[in-house]
Every structure is written in C-alpha cells, then in structure tokens.
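Recall from the previous lesson that a structure prediction takes nothing but the amino acid sequence as input. Here we apply that procedure to Transporter, major facilitator family protein from Lentilactobacillus hilgardii. The sequence below is the only information supplied.
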Amino acid sequence: MDSSITHWRPNIYLFLTSQFLTGITSMIVQYAIIWYLTKETGSATVLSFATILGMLPMVLLSPFVGPLIDRWNKKGLLIVPDIVAALFAIILSISGTFFNAFPLWLIFISLLMRSIAQTFQMPTIQAVIPTMAPEKEITRVNGQLGMVQSANMIIAPALGAMLFAIIPMKFLILLDVLGAAIGIGILLFVKIPSNERIDDALHVLHNTKLGVSQLVKNKGLWYITVIGAAFTLFYMPCASMYPLMTMSYFQGTVGQAGLIEAIYSAGMLVGGTIIGIFGNWKNRMIPVIAAFFIIGITTGFSGLLPGNQYGFLWFVVLNALAGLATPYFNTLLMAMIQQSYPPQQLGRVLGVLNSLLSLTGPLGLIFAGPLADAIGVEMLFVIAGISAIAAGVAAWIIPVVRNYDLQLQARVKKQKL
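The prediction returns the following tokens.
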C-alpha cells in the first residue's frame, strides 16, 4: 500500500475534528443571536441588515485576502479567526451581564467582526485541503468536510434551540470561547504543508488582478461564477428570512426554527455522505445542475404553502429535499475549482471567486426587508425558487458549463502523462 495513503488520513481526520468542534459552538452562538433578533424585533429589515453585515466582509475583502492566504502561515489563518470570534463573544457576554441587554449596535459589530474572521478562515480551509490529501481523493475529502459541516448544522440548531430556552443569552454566547479553546488545541497537532516560497514582493492589488485574470480566462468556470452570482442575488433574501418564515408566517416557535435548520442540515449530511462515498462521477456538472432544479422546486413550493402548522409540516419535508441537493452544488464545484489551479494560485483565485459569488447577496438583501414587509416573506421563497430553476437552465444550455468537468478531467489526465 502507498505509504502516503497510510499517513495522510489520520492528519485529515484530526483536522476535520478540530473544524467540527470549533464550528458547532460558533454556529450555536450564531443561531442564538439571529433567534434573539427575530424574537425581540420580529423585523424583516433587522434580519436582512444582520445578514448583510455577515456577508459584506466576504464581498469587500475576499479579493485581497486570497494573495495573503497564498503566502501567510495557513495554520495561523485558521487559529486567529477562532480567537477573534471568542473575544467578541466575551465582549457581548460582558455587555449582557452589566447592562442586562444586548444593544443592537453591539450585536451588529459582533456579527461584522465574526464575518471578517470567517473571510480569512473559509478560503484557507478550501486552500489547504488539496495540500493535505492525494489528488484522486480530493472530491471524497471535500465530501467528508461537507459531512462535518452538515453535522454541525444538524446538531447546532437543535442543541441551540434547547439551550436558548434554558440558558441566559449572556452565558450561552460563551460557548464560542469553549469551542475555540478545544478546537485550537487539536489544530496545533495537525500537520499542514508549508506554502511554497514566493519570492516576488506582495502586491495585493496586482495579485488580485492576476486572480481575476486567471478566473476570466477559464471560460467554463467564469460562466459558472456568473450564474452562481445571479442565483445568489435572488436566493439570499429568502435564505435570510428562514427564522421569520417559521416564527411569523407559519406561526411557529424558536424550537421549530431550530428544527427547520436541523432538517435542512440532515439532508445536507445525507448528500455529503453520498458524495464522500461515491464521489467520483465522470461528469460532476450533471449533479451540480440537478441541484439547481431541486433547490428551485422545493424552495418555490415552500412559498406557496398555507401559513399554518399543516403548511409547516410540508415545509419540513421540502427543506429535507433541498438540503439533500445542496452539497452537490457546494462540494462538487469546490473540488473542481481546486483541481483547476495549482496550490500556489488557489488562494487568490478563491478570494476573487468567493467575492463575486457573494457580491450580489448584499444587493438582494438591501431590498429583502422592505420587500418582505410589502409582499410577504413567503413570496421571497417563490422568487428564489424561480431564480434557482433559471440558473439550472442556463447552466445546462451553455456547453462550456455543462461539459466543464469533462474538459477538466481530460486536462488533468493529460498533465499526468
């Protein structure tokens, strides 16, 4: 047996364990903050603004973060964001203790700083995976990472809803500190390959321009990015309204809001498990395109359900199906991107790509609150469903998109000869 295969697996599993532990506590706190805002304000505008703050750093900073990720110590880039999130959790907890309330401005600043930290962390995780596993295992490892993230999203909302009901918010927030401490402790033992030395001086704007150029030259991936950005424009307003959809339109509780998140994530876990076990499709763009249609149909029908508990039961079923389809888009597309560029270029390309995919989200969210108040939160789901189906149609009828993975695999195979 190849010795490289016998040694990389324990290291990957240690890495995934650290991400699970830091991720679950961070997500519990994130859900708790959103549910707190929903319960205290009941405002679609407040929720959309909170989501904008969560996305804005990704849009503004991602193009400039990529070149830094290519050069900086990647283990440090994984550890520092957890420390930053923990520090702001402490600040928020102290505020709740001394003032017996959480000022909106402080919550918004906390969400913004957490998002800035994640803007560095997420592309770093995406960039280190190809350096820690053999190339032929990248799709499966991405599937396993997706399983870890899905497991977090199943456990976090269910556990978070229970804890939200029995633990004061000022103490619940401190879970972020505990998770960061344990996760960082494990990550210290993970071996992450060092960056290849880059002797050129760091010119952030120049490297960002190179990232844009490398993405645009790759016509198939560029068109996929444009389609994904258009989809995000219409889908993100709906995604930000899930708590309000459950608690206002379906007249549900915080527990039911947590249930929806858990069900959706359970579907993602099943989908990620299938990818992790049977992930080597000959053309990975086919399940990616199918995911657009499944998400579109389930999301669109969700907005047509009656606004009562009977409708909520069907909402649960539809979200399980939507969750099942989600990893096919996220995980398979990321595996293709990782195979499209050498590791020393991947950070800057991912930075530009993540920024472009996120750019349209805040634009849609600007109108989400007023639009939801005017036409009803459920109609945002109908609009999102139609946009997802349109994105699937566009991806299918453009040959360079539909056949992107076939061309990529042929190129990778040729390079090995």
